[in-house]
Design brief:
18% of the residues are buried. By secondary structure, the protein is α+β, with helices and mostly antiparallel strands. A hairpin with a 2-residue loop joins β3 and β4.
């Protein structure tokens, strides 16, 4: 009887043009306060420690049906302050010619190199007055630390998570605790409507993340569903971490892709991808981010790598000559002052 009354009231509201209240979003206020208070700080601390490493990533593309390896790729990411280097090597497969690409940005200019079976050749070089002038659409995050961000566990497809959560087009729909074994995780759901001037251009999408608040809030897993005009595409990524460092470094990632038409028809399975990471803790000199590191002359009109000024060498040479001359005079005087036998 009570259910009939609820149904009658709901129908009555609809008839008079009143929309029933939508269910409240499942947002834990305590978790929301913790997220707003420490998440961005933890990301910055993580990046500051990650800056001591460079990363080599091996990628394997796998056929979802036959489990055959379709392609192998290798990526290398290096950074030093505002200098960034990202290289990728495509596999030597019968269906594809080998190809190496390197994109580099230093404090004076950016450049792109390619190499097949022979030597490197220069595809692009551009002088810039600021880091923003050097933005390359290829790079996921157009900022001075773009490569460092790409090495981190806060890269969520085309998003940098700390910025995504603060964008006006992002609405949080879910925030609750979740236990997996001994790991305390936080599940965060969201809807995203990109701004028209957002680059690279994106379609509206929704998704969820699993965060580990006890380990710098790294992303353990995420799923994004992008809604295009004709297709709906979903990407899911699971991250595994090594725990023998001062920060949790990515060890491997598994990516799965699937899609369907708007009418619900499923698309054929897309190849999956497995990534394995090797982080090396080693400082990278700025000279590694210049054309001369690849055997090319430095661009005309641009400052060369800072070294010892020429006048210092001239002064040092003059001082050495003066010392030699003084030594010869001393030997000559000593020879003339010896007694004759």
């Amino acid at each position: 009887m009570q259910a009939h009354r609820v149904a009658i009231v709901t129908v009555g509201l609809l008839l008079v043009g009143v929309t029933p209240m939508t269910p409240a979003l499942e947002i834990d206020p305590t978790l929301r306060k913790e997220l707003d208070g420490v998440f961005s700080t933890q990301c910055r601390v993580y990046l500051s420690k990650l800056a001591a490493y460079y990363c080599v990533t091996d990628s394997v593309i796998i056929d979802p049906t036959t489990k055959e390896v379709l392609e192998k790729r290798k990526f290398e990411s290096k950074q030093n302050g505002k200098c960034n280097l990202f290289s990728q090597t495509y596999s030597f497969t019968p269906k594809r010619k080998p190809l190496d690409q390197v994109r580099v940005m230093n404090s004076d200019y950016s450049f792109r190199l390619e190499r097949g079976r022979d030597d490197w050749f220069l595809k692009h070089v551009k002088q810039h007055e600021s880091i923003r002038d050097a933005i390359d659409p290829f790079f996921m995050f157009p900022d001075g630390d773009m490569v460092l961000r790409g090495m981190s566990p806060y890269a969520v497809h085309l998003h940098w998570l700390p910025e995504l959560l603060t964008e006006s087009g992002c609405e949080m729909t879910l925030l609750k605790s979740e236990q997996r074994g001994t790991d305390k995780l936080i599940r965060l759901g969201f809807n995203y409507l990109p701004q028209k001037d957002k680059l690279p251009s994106q379609s509206p999408h929704e998704g969820w993340l699993l965060l580990s608040p006890d380990h710098y809030w790294v992303v353990k897993e995420f799923e994004l569903t992008e809604k295009k005009s004709l297709l709906v595409k979903t990407i899911r990524r699971t991250n595994e971490f090594s725990d023998d460092n001062d920060i949790p470094l990515l060890r491997s990632s598994t990516l799965e892709y699937k899609g369907r038409h708007r009418d619900g028809t499923q698309l054929p399975p897309n190849p999956g991808e497995v990534l394995t990471y090797q982080f090396i803790k080693q400082p990278i000199p700025e000279s590694a981010f210049r054309l001369s590191a690849f055997g090319f002359p430095e661009p005309v009109g641009l400052p060369q790598e800072r070294g010892v000024p020429n006048y210092v060498w001239f002064l040092a040479a003059a001082a050495a000559c003066a010392m030699l001359a003084a030594g010869f005079r001393h030997m000559s005087r000593r020879k003339h002052s010896l007694p004759v036998s």
